[in-house]
Amino acid sequence: MSDQSPTTPGEANPEASAPTPAPTPAPTPGPRPGAPSPAALARKVAPRPAAAPETRIVRASDPSEWGRIDENGSVFVRTSDGERQVGSWQAGAPEEGLAHFGLRYDDMVAEVALLEARLQSHPQDAKKTRASAESLAAQLPTAAAVGDIDALGTRLAAVVERSGAVEVEARQRKDEERAAAIARKEALAAEAEEIGESSTQWKAAGDRLREILDEWKTIRGIDRKTDDALWKRFSKAREAFNRRRGSHFADLDRNRASVKRVKEELVERAEALSLSTDWNDTATAFRRLMDEWKAAGRAPREADDALWKRFKAAQDTFFDARHAAAAERDAEFEGNADAKEALLADYAGRIDPEKNLAAARSALRELQTRWEEIGKVPREKMGQLEGRIRALEKSVSDAADAEWRRTDPEAKARAAQFWVRVDDFEEQAAKAEAAGKSKDAEKARAQAVQWKEWAQAAEKAVDTR
User: d(Cα 303, Cα 289) in Å, to the nearest integer?
Assistant: First the structure.
């Protein structure tokens, strides 16, 4: 291949003879074959400053170590197979020519480095990388470049060799990823089928199906046939769920219409009871209505809310009236409690059965009559007040019982019979003594003493009853 600079118009060819040699123009680089590479352009982004000609570009290799330019301008490169001509340089000094062909070598080095990096970073493209390396290796024997061509060949051979293993590894990894993707989509499809078949948690299940769909879209790397089959399973399951959910809510709508009619009837009954003053029975009736309301279920939301407001208003009307009546009653009962407190204080000193049982009985009857006339008291005060009047009643009752026992005719008659027997035995003793029967007299006197003790005990028992 030749890389020779053309001459400008009016210039003489240095190899041609002429009677008068023309002045030699400043040499210009000859044209390069093909478009410049990115590596070459990168080196020319900024022009070298004229004030620092000693600045040198760092090259992949020193072209003077791997090539030469002879006196005819032919450019050679040295390889393990010997020297070969890669072009010619007629535009300037040999050093510039070597630098020019060295830049071409640097471009090839950059291409090899890109292939090595691509093999590492894009293993899935190992086949394309190998083809590029083989193509570049095929160009090496005729490459118009000066540098360590053999080293480039070795690196390209390594890329080609390594690409086979990388391709196998990438294929295995792709197969593993494909198997994992299939397994995951199969699991998602199975979960969707279970939801579509049996789930009744409509909101949660619907949310989960959307999550499954979002994840499904992120799973890649499955062949079209398998992916289509799995998608059909998922889509069928989702449609089954949607049909069941639609049927459920359709039934629910029909049921809610029926519930609405039931609740309308409950509201009418509640409103009819709202003005009742039969507090206990009506309160029980409202509790039964509330139980029926809860058991009825839900009507459509808007209707259910409106019906509940009417039901609650009727309920509040009744219970507010009952509470007002109870408050009025409680105020009355508080007054009754105060009246009974005053009544107890008034009669406490007038009921003393120990002093005068008859007067105590009369005062107690008056107290009881006035007590009943006053009426009911608050529940929390009822026990204390009732206890106090019961204590007075008991004191009078106990005194009356004791008096009755003391004045009981039958008890006194039984005690008198003992004294009759005492008299009988004393009379017998006297007769026996007069008849000279001293033993009979002694025995009769002993019996008289015994009956006297019994008579005294009987009288004491009557007195202390």
Answer: 18
Sheet holding 67-69, edge to edge: 67-69, 74-79, 82-88
73: nearest Cα among 91, 95, 90: 90
| Helix locations, 349-437, DSSP H | 357-374, 379-406, 409-434
Helices (H), 199-223: 202-218
Q: What distance in Å separates the CA atoms of residue 230 and residue 235, rounded to the nearest whole number? A: 9
Rounded to an integer, what distance in angstroms lies between the CA atom of residue 189 and that of residue 187? 5
* Strand partners for 85: 76
Q: At 90, is the pLDDT very low, low, confident or very high (cuts 50, 70, 90)?
A: confident
Q: What is the pLDDT averaged over residues 433-453?
A: 85
For residues 90 and 21, the answer to whether their CB atoms sit within 8 Å is no
Q: Tell me the pairing of strands 67-69 and 74-79.
A: antiparallel
Secondary structure (3-state) at 79? strand
Per the DSSP assignment, residues forming a β-bridge with 77 are 67, 84
Cα gap 145→76, rounded to integer Å: 9
Residue 246 has which token pair? 């639609």
> In the block, which residue shows the tokens 């204080």?
345
Predicted confidence (pLDDT) per residue in 349-396, tens digit: 778 777 787 888 888 788 888 888 888 888 887 888 788 878 878 878
Closest CA to 412 of 424, 401, 420: 420
Contact of 141 with 156, CB cutoff 8 Å: no
DSSP at 11 = P
Crossing angle (nearest 10°) for helices 279-296 and 301-348: 150
CA-atom Rg of the chain in angstroms: 65
